[in-house]
Design brief:
The complex is a heterodimer of chains A (368) and B (598). Chain A is mainly α and 368 residues long. Chain A contains 13 helices and 3 strands; from the N terminus they run αααβββαααααααααα. Chain A has a domain at 69-293 and 309-333. In chain A, strand 1 (88-90) and strand 2 (93-99) form a beta hairpin. Classes of the chains: A mainly alpha (368), B alpha+beta (598).
């Protein structure tokens, strides 16, 4: 009954909830209509739900996490199939399951976490230092390809890309082999031409082109990046002040509450505000990575690594996207961008990270 | 990968990537922040130019001679969000603007140097077109309606030379390209009083959203200053534009100039030069072809004949010859010379205009009949040194203080003789100059000054054309009153005696003046006084004789003779003056007089 002895990992939780509060503040000052139908109000409800999820996760026994891995993965796959047939189509992608009038859920968010779970489970059973790389890659590929293909069918390029990056990071770092890595790189390189020619849709190609030359078409796809840079840059050191995001309010900035929420924040709070927000994420990621080699359990180790890369890549790619480092692919800033699914999954991941670290600390404290 | 390696390596990678973001944010927000802030402001602040009207030019009674009329113009500023094909169709269908014209503007606006420039699509939109465009302003962000001011000259050609006109294609405004209201005056009073007349354009900023729609509810702090526009000041002239119109009409088909000024106030009442041009043509854009067409007309409509055409004065100069001779003691009121119709000098015959001659004449009669022989003889006795001195006293060879460009003409003084005649001055030259031919040229305004001096008993008039402008006190020429009276009597006789040459203007017996006919020299004697070799006519006068108020000078180019061509015009001017000034305005006039302390 170590639940009773467990001391919650306050630092991680505090950082996470700070992000959520900043998110609500950011959304409040976009002022997009009556409060009760606004994004900020909905996000507030989601945050409360996230707090409950987090609280529940913190009560779970670690062994249970391992046990639910397979069912979580299967549930995610079922939801992904379900959404393809019954999902709500929003901006070209059939990726939403509608729950009532108020809420909708994005299964592609959940699958990112459940993939980490299932990889953690199978890798830990194989042994973290097992030399059976081929088996590991094969397993990884199988677990990855199925949801990846389903997401691509929706099609949701952003989620698919995020799944790809997180999966590759986890697979490669836990089954590191130079030869195989080189082969993978070669395969990807040789596939890139046919992918470009046949698999990518025109609008996706245009986005990539406009990423490389945003000024080529300043009012088309490059427009978003330019306006985002203008928003961030015009924030200068301390920002224009909360509520003064002219870029967002006057609708120069697209997707201001989701993909470009960071730009709005940076415009309002400047360099200092941006650093504070990024610092909170950096703390979560680096703090988790700091404990990585202290965790003895292979399952928890893969899980912790996977979840921290889940946080990190959302942060990195989203921010990189807003400052013109990365093509605009529709990846939200986890827990900061508006959106229930990513907030719930983020809170879940946050809870699990806190759970793993506090468990380690307890074990150390009790000398077990 | 070893266990500890994984942790530290991932921390390292994460730190490097976060560091890159940190640097990028630092670069965008701190180093380039100002620039992005500027872009952001330009994003949502739309600069609107608020043109300022130019001040009006008014005549002495407040009639508008040049006035700025508000017009609505349609501008184009490149905006890549607009569908150019649809826009072109809209412009050609609704406003019937040629597609080629629109294409030309589109191409121009694509040039990098024209990045922020507005192009005028159509000037002076009709009301129904304003409505049509206004309803489409939300669909086409590149269209802009701007109130501008068009310079209008209601009296068109009348007096155009001195009022001037605006430079037709002014590109001082880099944003709007050609703004009508910023055009500057490049001739006449429009140029001279440019600073006073020119208004100051204002700017205001509209808060707009990404669709270019005006946002009123949102208040975003910004530090761009709103600049109010400032209208130009009015210019009150002393001119009577209705009188000028009257004179312009009276000229009929004749070319020439007329000057009317008030002896007591030195105010110019009328300055007319004909042929003239329509200054309204310059207020809008003028094509090079049109300009060539106007400017190359053979009768030189742009030449202000009142100031810039300098011609031999003919017999009107006998006024100065007489005064000079009387003052220098060469003659007195009783001196008589015999005119037999010609005068022989060094074997050469110098004719009097009247065949058979005038017989015995004194100075008064010589003026009345304009006897050439009398003045040949007087001129020879006077000599060029004293004569040119008196010519200079009367203002010849010099410019008046009026602000216009002037051709001062030439007088045969020592400087001139030394420079152009190698210091040689013959008696033949002297007799010619004494009757206003040869090496002496004057312009109409100088002739008026001369007559004014006679009429006012020696006051040199400091003419002015702007109301309330300080005028320097008149310089009084030291001329004997009796001598002046002799000439005045002569001038009265010119108009009113039976043998006077100025009878064409005879009316109520109160006009005094002098006619003059300047010979236009042709190489072939059979052209004499024909076509462009017709003589120029002068008629300079003052009215009324007993209490002189105005001086009138009429100069007619190729007008046969001064009396015949200038007389009727002078008569018209006098009758207009009598009708409009001496009856209704009389009281007003005398109260003005006392205000001025004269």
């Amino acid at each position: 009954m170590n639940n009773f002895f467990r001391k919650p990992e306050y630092k991680i939780l505090t950082a996470g909830f700070c992000i959520m509060i900043l998110s609500i503040i950011n959304l409040i000052f976009i002022r997009d209509g009556a409060f009760f139908s606004s994004y900020s109000f909905k996000q507030l409800i989601w945050t409360m739900a996230a707090a409950i999820i987090c609280f529940i996760v913190l009560r779970i026994r670690l062994q249970t996490l391992k046990n639910i891995s397979v069912s979580l993965y299967i549930l995610s796959i079922i939801l992904l199939v379900f959404v393809l047939f019954f999902g709500e189509k929003i901006s070209g992608a059939r990726s939403w399951i509608k729950i009532g009038d108020f809420m909708s859920f994005q299964p592609s968010e959940l699958v990112k976490i459940s993939f980490i779970f299932i990889i953690a489970k199978f890798y830990s059973e194989l042994g973290a230092y097992s030399k059976s790389y081929l088996v590991k890659y094969f397993l990884g590929l199988v677990f990855f390809l199925l949801p990846f293909a389903l997401i691509m069918f929706q099609p949701d390029l952003g989620s698919a890309l995020m799944l790809l990056i997180v999966s590759l990071t986890v697979i490669i770092s836990f089954s590191y082999n130079q030869k195989i890595l080189i082969i993978i790189i070669l395969i990807i390189a040789s596939l890139s031409v046919p992918i470009w020619s046949y698999a990518l849709k025109d609008y996706q190609k245009e986005r990539i082109v406009s990423f490389i030359y945003p000024e080529k078409d300043p009012s088309g796809y490059g427009y978003n990046v330019i306006q985002s840079k203008v928003a961030i840059g015009s924030g200068q050191l301390v920002g224009k002040g909360l509520g003064n995001s002219s870029q967002a309010k006057l609708k120069f900035l697209p997707e201001k509450h989701t993909d470009f929420a960071f730009s709005v924040w940076a415009e309002q709070t400047g360099f200092l505000g941006s650093i504070i927000l990024i610092g909170l994420y950096a703390f979560i990621v680096l703090y988790s990575l700091y404990y990585l080699n202290k965790i003895k359990d292979n399952f928890l180790q893969v899980l912790l690594f996977g979840l921290s890369s889940y946080f990190f890549f959302h942060l990195f790619i989203n921010v990189a996207m807003t400052i013109g480092f990365f093509p605009v692919v529709g990846i939200p800033l986890l827990m900061f961008s508006y959106g229930g699914s990513s907030l719930m999954c983020g809170a879940m991941a946050l809870g699990i990270i806190a759970l793993i670290i506090s468990e380690y600390k307890d074990v150390n404290r009790l000398g077990l | 990968m070893a266990k500890s390696e994984r942790s530290s390596l991932s921390i390292l990678i994460v730190s490097i990537l976060l560091g890159a973001i940190f640097l990028r944010l630092f670069f965008i927000q701190i180093i380039n922040g100002d620039e992005y802030n500027q872009i952001s402001s330009n994003n949502f602040l739309k600069e609107i130019i608020v043109p300022a009207p130019r001040g009006s030019i008014l005549d002495r009674f407040g009639n508008e001679i040049a006035v700025s009329k508000a017009v609505v113009n349609l501008y184009y500023k490149k905006n890549s969000k607009d569908d150019l094909f649809k826009l072109k169709n809209f412009l050609s269908n609704s406003l019937s603007i040629k597609k080629e014209t629109v294409d030309k503007i589109f191409i121009e606006s694509n040039l990098p140097k024209n990045k922020n420039k507005r192009f005028i699509i159509k000037e002076n939109l009709k009301l129904k077109n304003i409505y049509r465009v206004e309803s489409q302003l939300n669909s086409y962000q590149s269209l802009e309606l701007v109130v501008d001011y068009l310079r209008v000259y209601p009296f068109e050609e009348v007096g155009a030379h001195k009022f001037g006109y605006l430079k037709s294609n002014d590109s001082r405004d880099i944003v709007y390209g050609s703004f009508l209201s910023t055009r500057i005056g490049i001739s006449g009073l429009e140029k001279i009083y440019e600073k006073k007349l020119q208004g100051l354009n204002g700017t205001k900023y509209l808060l707009i959203d990404s669709k270019g729609r005006e946002v009123v509810s949102e208040v975003v702090s910004f530090d761009k200053k709103i600049k109010a526009n400032k209208s130009g000041e009015n210019l009150n002239t002393t001119v009577d534009i209705e009188l000028e119109k009257h004179i312009y009409k009276a000229f009929g088909d004749l070319r020439g100039a007329a000057v009317v000024h008030d002896i007591n106030t030195n105010e110019i009442l009328a300055l007319v030069s004909k042929p003239s041009f329509n200054p309204n043509e310059f207020s809008k854009s003028m094509s090079a072809k049109k300009w060539r067409n106007i400017s190359s007309k053979p009768n030189k409509p742009f030449l202000d004949r009142a100031f810039l055409s300098s011609n031999p004065p003919g017999s009107i100069i006998k006024i100065v010859t007489a005064i000079a001779a009387l003052e220098e003691g060469v003659i007195n009121k009783d001196t008589k010379h015999y005119c037999k119709g010609y005068y022989v000098l060094g074997g050469r015959k110098f004719r009097c205009w009247k065949q058979g001659g005038h017989g015995k004449v004194d100075v008064v009669n010589a003026l009345i009949t304009s006897c050439d022989v009398f003045f040949y003889k007087v001129g020879l006795s006077l000599g060029i040194k004293d004569y040119s001195k008196w010519l200079a006293f009367f203002g010849f060879g010099d410019k008046t203080k009026l602000p216009f460009s002037q051709n001062p003409g030439v007088i045969p003084n020592k400087k001139f003789i030394d420079k152009y005649l190698k210091g040689k001055w013959y008696k033949g030259d002297m007799v010619n100059v004494a009757i206003g031919q040869g090496y002496l040229t004057v312009n109409p305004i100088q002739a008026s000054v001369m007559t004014s001096i006679i009429a006012s008993n020696g006051k040199y008039p400091n003419l002015k054309i702007i109301k309330n402008e300080d005028s320097i006190d008149n310089k009084l020429l030291d001329i004997n009153k009796d001598n002046l009276l002799l000439v005045q009597k002569g001038l009265l006789g010119v108009v009113n005696e039976d043998n006077g040459t100025g009878f064409h203007a005879r009316d109520d017996g109160m006009l005094a003046g002098k006619t003059g006919t300047a010979q236009v020299i042709s190489k072939d004697s059979k052209d004499y006084n024909l076509g462009k070799y017709k003589n120029h006519g002068w008629y300079t006068s003052y009215y009324p004789f007993d209490n002189p108020r105005i001086v009138i000078t009429v100069f007619v180019e190729n007008g046969v003779s001064g009396g015949r061509s200038g007389g009727p015009i002078t008569k018209e001017i006098v009758s207009y003056y009598k009708k409009n000034y001496l009856t209704t305005v009389k009281e007003n006039y005398s109260s003005n007089m006392s205000d001025l302390g004269e």
